[in-house]
Specification:
three-stranded antiparallel β-sheet, 36% helix, alpha/beta, Nucleotidyltransferase, domain 5, 3 domains, five-stranded mixed β-sheet, 349 residues
Length: 349
Amino acid sequence: MDDSEFSAWLEGMARLSAAQYALAKARLEASRVPGERLDAEPDPMPAVKRRRGRAETSGTDALGEVERLKVASAGCPHCGAFEIAPWGWSHGLRRHRCAECRRTFNAATKTPMARLRKREGWMTQAQALIEGVSLAKAAERCGVHSTTAFRWRHRFLTAPALDKPIALKGIVEADETFILESFKGRRSDLPRPARRRGGRAKHPGLFFENIPVLVARDREGATIDAVLPEVTAVCVAAGLQDAVTSANQLVCDGAMAIRAFARRRRIPVHVVPSPGKPDIATPDIHLNNVNAYHSRLKEWLRRFHGVATKNLPNYLGWRRAIEAWGEKLTPQNCLLGSLGNGPYQQLTL
């Protein structure tokens, strides 16, 4: 590019939209030769792969932008420092070197996504998670076997399953729901005859065939859920961790375990009669939000025709991330959450 073309290009930058500017910035950063300073000229051949000391593109611009955001927000996964520099490419991902510990890493280092191959299909898999398509459709889209699609699904969901808010604010609604126990995928040693396509419990509520799931949700939409081994105060405390404190007001439907948990932690608790609708005298005390979340969760799970109980925490995290991202749910953000930087910013290193 000669000087006149370069001047015209610079003048056109003022008319770029926010999305166009982000794309241009990601393209310029992805085109840098390893070891160059940030103020150096960009590589005029960003699409050329370079191995053994040569630059190599990371696939799509979207994946490169996700990598940049992950490294910029988390820093070095080994020591936490933010003084890092580009350090070549490896297996389609840009590598970096920390100035403090002198170790190299990429965006997937020390995350559940580490050493996961075929990175050209990651964005497609993220879109499949957003849409909640079947494993067969996800495998077809990504060009992988169905067993690989299953492994990918749970590698992508490992970090979101751990991504929960540190604390809930103000009024917190807490209630348990029950999901049918499932041994889906288990081929032998079943404790009961196999069912077809999920099945139904003989009795609703607290029953040996049902798995209790506790959901706590504040009025801003922050949600914590947990699979309970038993419906006891100890299990409720373990599921909620320290997210609910005496600074909150806990609303429940009178469940003994939740009330015992609140009494031990000295948390103000309000018991509403079933079905948890607000009273005229206290319109803010109700369970409408958490009950609505239960309904959305079960309706969303129905497409899977039964979820293996051992994998249930991953599916809870999947749904929780969808709700937390809201309108910002994009393949880029979905992949960012799988790399340990989810909507609640709980880095899983």
